[in-house]
Amino acid sequence: ILHLREKGQSMARLFIWLSTLLCIAQVCAMSTRCKLQRRLVETCHYLLETMGGKFPLQCLEDNVLVPFPTAAFKSDSRKQTIATEKSIYMTLKYIDSMFSNDGVPDQWTAQEKLDYFQHILFRLIEENRCIMGKKQDSLDFYSRAASLRAYFDKITMVLKEKDFQYCAWEFVRIESLHALQFILREDFHNMRSRRELGTEHDSLK
User: What are phi and psi of 135, to 5 degrees?
Assistant: First the structure.
């Protein structure tokens, strides 16, 4: 009987320990949601940059000028900050969609880098789905969304028109790098401060 009682107590302690670990894991996961992590975006940029190196000289003739919609990342107020966060989220989704296509060139370095790049993109997208549920000026966001859609549609069209060849993928890679650079120019800390300040202001109304 004593043995069974000790065994039961051990099982109870194990259950409490596992439950505590599960709660900690859930809290840690929740703490990163709806908060874009700059270090993950920086890692994506680094992997994409080192995956193919500098833009190949033989591809210069195939390069197409597609101006990036910089206005999509304007954030001077709390409402604009939310719209900017949504623009960043959409940009990450567009990049993920393009690199989900088959036919990535053999000239790029280790497949592990591409796999890791896609894994981090997927994590950023999954952890920040809730961003799209935030409220902001609808007209402002729709204009941003339309400009981003037009930009990435042009890039995807070039990739398809050039039959997913090496130079076309290099064009996609360079344009994606530009997009990630615009994201990294954002001050993530100040964006969060403006958003939290606006939330506090709304609660006092």
Answer: -95, 140
Interatomic CA distance for residues 89 and 69, integer angstroms: 15
Global confidence as pTM: 0.75
Give me the helices (H) in the chain, please: 2-31, 38-52, 78-99, 111-127, 138-161, 166-185, 188-204
- Helix, coil or strand: residue 63: coil
Amino acid 84 reads T
Least confident of 46-55, 89-98, 104-113, 166-175: 104-113
Q: What is the pLDDT of residues 115-154, one digit of tens each?
A: 999 999 999 999 999 998 887 666 778 889 999 999 999 9
Nearest to 91 by CA among 124, 63, 58: 124
φ and ψ of 150, to 5 deg = -65, -40
CA gap 177, 17 in Å, rounded: 44
